[in-house]
Every structure is written in structure tokens, then in C-alpha cells.
Amino acid sequence: MLPTATYTSGDITQSFHPGKGPHTTNGSTTQISDIVLNAGGQDRDKPSAANDTPMGNLRASLTTLQDQINVFLTERMRAEKANDRDDIERKVLDEGAEEESDSE
User: Fold this and answer.
1) Is residue 101 included in any domain, yes or no?
2) CB 5 within 8 A of CB 16
3) What is the pTM for the complete model shown?
4) Does residue 104 lie within any of the structural domains?
5) In total, how many domains does the chain have?
6) Which InterPro entries is this protein grouped with (predicted)?
7) Which phi and psi (to 5°) does residue 8 adopt?
8) Rounded to the nearest 5°, which phi and psi values hold at 84?
């Protein structure tokens, strides 16, 4: 049986399932950034490969699940920032329109 996770916030519910794989312990969202790697940095905390055992397979599946959750939450944060930016721009434009109509 594979692990699953469910994210719930307000009116949003998102379920995560790692799927059949293949799964590895080398997660795409859990390694050091490309900027650090390109600057010559090394990932000293890189996990060892999963063994082909029930526990090793679970460990690799959990890494996939963690990647899915990280990608989802990152996209939500980006969307929220974009909405906040749009709200600020709208507010600035609306306040500017009120000032213009007050002066007429």
C-alpha cells in the first residue's frame, strides 16, 4: 500500500498519491538549488538510494509524495503573491481614480 496525503485549507482540498513510480530518494524539490550547484556547491545531505525492500520502497514513495506536495504549495504561494500584487495594483488604481474624481 502506498502512502497518500490530503491538504485542506478553507474551501480547497487536494489529495496526493505517489503513483506506481518509479520512485527514488533523490527528490526534485528536496535538493540544493541550481544556483548553489552552479556556483560549485555540493549537496552534502543527499540521501542514499532506496533499497529494494518494503521499507526502501516506502521511503522512495514518500520522497515522491513530498515532491508533489512541495510543487503544489509552491504554486499556491506564487498564485497568492500574484493575487496580492493584482489587489495592490487595483487598489492603487482605484485610489487614483477616486482622487481624480474628487478634484473634478
Assistant:
1) no
2) yes
3) 0.71
4) no
5) 1
6) EKC/KEOPS_Gon7
7) -135, 130
8) -60, -40
* Residue 102 located in a structural domain: no
Report how far residue 79's alpha carbon sits from residue 19's, in angstroms, rounded to the nearest whole number: 26
pLDDT band at 88 (very low <50, low <70, confident <90, very high): confident
Other CB atoms closer than 10 Å to residue 68's CB: what's the count?
Answer: 20
Provide the residue range defining the domain that includes 90.
Answer: 5-95
Residue 98, pLDDT above cutoff 60: no
Torsion of CA 6, 73, 68, 5, to 10 degrees: -10
Contact 3, 65 (CB under 8 A): yes
DSSP string, 53-98: SHHHHHHHHHHHHHHHHHHHHHHHHHHHHHHHHHHHHHHHHHHHHH
Instruction: Tell the residue number behind the cell numbers 480547497, with chain if given.
Output: 12
In a 3-state reduction of DSSP, which class is residue 34?
helix
Is 58 among the domain residues? yes
The answer to whether 66 touches 29, Cβ cutoff 8 Å, is: yes
Beta bridge partners of 44: none
The pLDDT of 24-37, averaged and rounded, is: 85
